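Escalated from tier 1: adenosine monophosphate holo job.
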Amino acid sequence: MEDFQSLGLSKKLLLAVEQEGYTTPTPVQAQAIPPLLEGRDVLGVAQTGTGKTAAFALPVLQIISRSKPQSKRHIRALVLSPTRELAAQIDERFSAYSGHLDIRHKVIFGGVKQNPQVRALQKGIDVLVATPGRLLDLIGQGYIDLGRVEFFVLDEADQMLDMGFIRDIKKVLKLLPRQRQNLLFSATMPKSIAELAASFLHNAVKVDVSPEEITVERIAQKIMFVRKADKRRLIVKIIKQERVNKGIVFTRTKHGANRLVKQLDQSGINAAAIHGNKSQGARTKALANFKTGHTSILVATDIASRGIDVNDITHVFNYDLPNEPESYVHRIGRTARAGKSGIAYGFCDDSESGYLVGIQQLIGFDIDVDESHEFHFVGAIPKPGQIPGKIKTGKSGNKPNRPNRNNNKNRSKQRQNKPKSPSQSQGNNNSNRQRPPRRRRERNRSQGNQNQ
Ligand code: AMP
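Tier 2 regenerated the structure:
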């Protein structure tokens, strides 16, 4: 088995890695670090949890510490990340790995005041980690010059495209010098990403850490068929029975996340929600409390959860099954990180059985069914030959837009009783719902991308 010494890393980086407690490189590190150190471009298919941050951060640090700029420090490496959480965590990893080097790095993202970011930029930095909106904003104001970037990293490229960042990425690419090294990481490789990669990577080495491997290896997975109306009682039961003190619960909507937090709270379970309607401060606080163990359950939507880097999550609950099968793989990858094991429960109600079919097709096997609970509901089991993703409207709940009796204050437009169209209806599981129309996605993006 390979060790870090054999990858060609400098002594100072080896020391940092050792201090982090890493003994063996993960597959993505073993495959990506040597070509990156040789100056090659890399195209990586890997998701959060595989150790991909170190796979690029270590070579970036090594390459830029080989030479010192003659004049004032300038941005030599740029890392673009889709979400604030992920950007902050990448920057935190740069802190961990650069402890023995004379490297300055900084993270910038929207939703917070720009002044401290501007001050750090004015002092001079070597590595900039950024979300696209704030980056372009500060470039527009003249605080950032990308003209001497030597290393460009585009992280979570599929997520970037899903969030409507393609035009921003293209704008950034135009501002980078021609002569530079590039790296693109994406959890999936649809045609759009392959095209984007081809547009700026040169003769790239392809590194593939397939999600299937990750899902089957260490994560125990269970499906529980249950009526929508019983999900809450089922989750409370499991959390209490299994004494979960580090679990993450995925809901489809921000509103669903808030509601579940309240309900868990009423059952004496300490939970917090993390999604884009929360302020950056609230998100950071929720994550910090979760990391330290003050909060045992984090309830999250998909995008907000990207990049949540907590190593000892023991349980992942798919409270709502995702309508995109790939999201299932991302979600369950929150557990069993860095060599640990974990369990992922999926709650499938009768409107979600088609989603389950799609997920099982993607991962290539049928997930074990757990019937040993009092809420087992045969009506939610997929029918023979059921088409993936097809929504079966059932009797057990999922009535569109039922007002929530527990939350009188917050009756927003979204939850009016009469949906006008599937895409407007909260609680209607139309499979297009997670992907708003292009114009809306772009508006979300320009508003600082705080919608998930
Ligand atoms: P990432 O996929 O970059 O988000 O990393 C996931 C987690 O794995 C982070 O908490 C890292 O600190 C940890 N990690 C990264 N590389 C290794 C390694 N070689 N051995 C053990 N843990 C690692």
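The longest strand covers residues 219-225.
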